[in-house]
Write a structure and sequence with these properties.
Elements (H helix, E strand, L loop, with lengths): L1 E6 L15 H18 L3 E4 L8 H14 L4 E8 L8 E5 L2 H15 L5 E6 L4 H4 L5 E8 L3 H6 L2 H13 L20 H11 L18 H14 L9 H11 L12 H10 L9 H13 L10 H8 L1
Parallel strand pairs: 1-2, 1-3, 3-6, 4-5
Antiparallel strand pairs: 4-6
The structure holds zinc ion.
The site of zinc ion has 5 residues, from loops.
Amino acid sequence: MKFGIDIGHNCPPDTGARGIKFEDNLTLDVGNRVIAKLKALGHQVVECKPARASSVSESLRKRCATANANKVDTFVSIHFNAFNRQANGTEVFAVSDTGRRIAKPVLDEIVKLGFFNRGVKNGSHLFVLKNTDMPAILVEGCFVDSQKDMNLYNPEAMANAIVKGLTGQLPSTPVNPIEDEEQNPDTTTLRFQKALNRLKITDKNGKPLVENGTNDATTKSAIEKFQSITGIQQTGIAGDTTWNAINQILAKRIIRVNHAGGVVVRYLQYRLGVDIDGIYGPQTEAAMKKFQQQNGLTADGIVGPATWQKLIG
Ligand SMILES: [Zn+2]
């Protein structure tokens, strides 16, 4: 496949939104990762962001002209949103039916990271979608002025999600080293046992799993336990959803109070022995402060790198 990747803005006077973070920085970071990952998977990439432009409209015209002249198969414009500090989540714009079919899996992959699903939307008002000749999408990764989104945001995970959504292939430079072995089915159970031991998920007898690569009854019971903790369907089988939950935890994102973190907060609540509801409220905060105190950490209730280190190494 030949992709036209359009890193949004970064071409003054064409500059992006400003919130807690700057859209230009995020589109550049995520866009560069997407480009590298697509190339590593063997795809051709045409970079559509112009080096310079004297106006926003010229910047946009040049992006389309580059994609059209190079006859890319799919045009992907990468952006981040800003609105009123409350709005949050991911949306992907498309115009044609083909564009929508490309947009949907990209949206789904980003939403798996924990962002609110704002849907695939009609982008017929967007210049770069109207003026490119091929199927085109515009990704609004999340909101740079939303604290919730900025807590969740991780450029590597976002880039992986976009590439996975576009190609169906697992990107070659994953969020954590555990993921790149995933394509080898022979090691799946062993890796799962190792991951569960790292996460301190025990079998039904409260024991760590034996790392033998055999999908036995104790391993199945531990998988079910993990699925129950993280609120996903209890199948006893480690499929994509389960791995995604593990990877979300292993990504060790910073978690703060009032953070509706879903899977990650549910896991923290399990570790702290408080009610599991996926919302980092006062009870969880108090338990976290106690955990931090007991482990010689700053008892601020913020789950940062040092706290994660104590929790999962
Ligand atoms: Zn933008």
